[in-house]
Amino acid sequence: MKKRFGWFLAIIVALIMTVVPLGQTQHAQAADNSLEQIQKKGVLVMGTSPDYPPYEFQATVNGKSKIVGMDVQIGKQVAKDLGVKLKIKSMSFDSLLVALQTGKIDMIISGMNPTPSRRKNVDFTHVYYQGGYDIVINKTDKAKYKNKNSFKNGTLGAQTGTTQYNAVKNQTTAKAKGMTSQSDLILALQSHKVDGVAMEKPSAEAYVANNKSLVAIPSDFNMSSSATSSAIAFRKGSTSLVNKVNKTVDRIKKRNLVKKQYLPAAGKYLKTNTVNTSMGHYWKAFATGIEYTLIITVCSVFFGFIIGILLALARMAKGNPLKTAIRWLATAYVEFIRGTPMMVQVMFVYFGLGLFVNLPALTSGIIAISLNSGAYVAEYIRGGINSVDVGQTEAARSLGMSNGETMRYVVLPQALKNIWPSLGNEFITLIKDSSIVSIIGVTELIYQSNIVRSDTYRGVAPIVVIMVLYFILTFTASRILNYFERRMQHD
Fold it and tell me: In what residue span(s) does the ABC transmembrane type-1 domain sit (predicted)?
């Protein structure tokens, strides 16, 4: 049995490794008429990581949070010239290339450098901005650090997946600390978890201008021109689309619109963000986060419970070869799901299944968490069923009840009573685990807190707020669950 189970897992892994490259090849082949497809669809989906001012960041405009910055202005101009509407999709920087290759987005405008390694996987337009790198440090350390060579035996932070992160690893003796968000890096700097943060000059200038405790110093990184420039990325083989967008990029460069219009406009939003940085001012953002957190949790609990019951019954099936096969498959599913991280499962559902079905981020998150929860609930239910005295089943059968009726009316109600604390713990866990879906752009509490941090340049206050909100949610849920547990004990 163990040997067959090992073969099954090997087959699953092989299928996953085979399907993803095939899907990427199909996308590349279908991209020959990329310009026609975008114009026919009427919408251009731009992927970006809005934590990189002044390139892209969150700002509160007329009471609502929106993504702004010079890259957004470029995206709007590209969409206008193509005659389509622009849709902006937010996600972490290191997920952008995967999203592009799997068709979740049509282009990346996120201060991305057109390095040779990236060109192997995507097509880039002409460069629209040429910049450089600085290192942001605490002002109190200004006399201590002068450039990258000053951080010997220190720690330098940089956003994962970026050229500056590679520069920190390869051109300094400092320990490299990678994080997915610039705001997380600045928080790490201010809490002295890192000694400096390497980032592009415009971003460094933006953070320093809005935080008087920070200062920027030259990095002195030895970088090629491609590593200090920014371009728009499209799926590999999108020749017609890239050629069309190049005309827009060339016109933007010829008129010097980035420095004359786009950067000054971004600067105004940066100043607006710091007018009112109180957490009460962002109550709508936190309310939205609570709303999505509850939607994900409730839906995942509901579907996870149904999946758990089916899997538990399947794992207990005995008899003919068909039932044996069902039991074997259910066992394999439970072991596989419990043996892989939920974050990987969320990314696989969103990006992997996205090769075949274009699922929204919220739907993908609910599906992934439900499938994960179902595997754990199945074990709770199976344990609960086994805890019911066999005499209960024998008594029900002696009264003429069928196997199905016995399970439904006698065994399951008693099993549910026995495992209620475990199910309650699963519900509480899901409230907190829902934060994982922020990596694919679902606007739950963690996502909203990152928005507030990007808006206000305050690192600790938003974290304190969401800690309190999570506690209120979990404490309230636990009290409700305890109430029903006491009712069941009384019955």
Answer: 290-481
Kindly give the parts of the chain with pLDDT less than 50. Answer: 1-31
Q: Tell me, yes or no, whether 314 and 440 share the same domain.
A: yes
Structural domain of residue 16, as residue ranges? 2-129+229-275
235 lies in the same domain as 194: no
CATH of the domain at 158: 3.40.190.10
**Structure tokens that stand for 119 in this block:** 């060109």
248/168 Cα distance (integer angstroms): 34
CA distance 302 to 269: 42
Q: Which two tokens stand for residue 56?
A: 């892209």
Q: Domain check: are 333 and 469 in the same one?
A: yes
Look at residue 2 in the predicted model and tell me its pLDDT: 39
Specify the pLDDT at position 71. 95
Residues 468 and 436 in one domain: yes
> Tell me: the pLDDT tens digits for 180-230?
778 788 888 988 999 999 998 888 887 887 788 999 999 989 887 777 889
Q: pTM surpassing 0.90?
A: no
Q: What is residue 28's predicted lDDT score, i.e. its pLDDT? A: 43
List, for residues 330-370, the tens digit of each pLDDT value. Answer: 999 999 999 999 999 998 998 888 677 778 889 999 999 99
Res 244: pLDDT: 95
Q: What are the backbone angles phi and psi of residue 275, rounded to the nearest 5°?
A: -70, -45
Give the number of residues written for the chain. 491
pLDDT at 151: 93
Q: Please count the structural domains in the chain.
A: 3
Q: Do both 324 and 362 map to the same domain?
A: yes
Residue 322, judged by CB atoms within 10 A of its CB (0-12, 13-18, 19+), counts as: exposed
Summarised one tens digit per residue, pLDDT across range 403-412 is 888 888 888 8
CATH number of domain containing 391: 1.10.3720.10
Dist. CA 271–CA 92, nearest whole Å: 24
